[in-house]
Amino acid sequence: MSLSPITDIRQKLRQSRQETLQLLKQIDEDSALHRVQPDAWNIKEHVIHLIAVEEAIVQFAGCILQEESPRSALCDERDFNQDVWNIQGVAERATYTWPETVQQLEQTHQSLLALIDTIPEEALKRVGSHPVWGDPVTLASILRHPYRHERDHRNEIAALYRLKRPQSQL
After folding, report:
1. What phi and psi values does residue 138 have, to the nearest 5 degrees?
2. Ranges in the chain, pLDDT < 50
3. pTM over 0.85, yes/no
4. What is the CATH number of the domain that holds 40?
């Protein structure tokens, strides 16, 4: 028997977050703040970025549920730049300590799961417009984005952590 789409999305989100949290539990604050290259994100910034994106997903998914074919306000920005948006999202949360960052990652995930628990399956076909996620984009696609996006950043976090750990721990 196959899973309902909502159950499938929820399970994939939970599995991805469990894998990420297992990795993050190994990382101390010094490792999280270590910058391998001057212009590259450190581990903490990757996690903060995941928080910012997940918060945006919860907000936009809520709009899709409440409105008929909503357009993200970002669609109206003539000069929308995803890199600038990403940098701003990280900068707005830069004061988080490492433990606060991990805690906030867990909290945003709980908010996403709570939203999913309210969604009827037929709502997954509802659409909205977003400059990054699609025009049009379905609610189902929006809800699948976090675990795919998180996997990519988790791989980068793992690589950064391997670079930071002393040779004796490898």
Report:
1. -80, 160
2. 167-168, 170
3. yes
4. 1.20.120.450
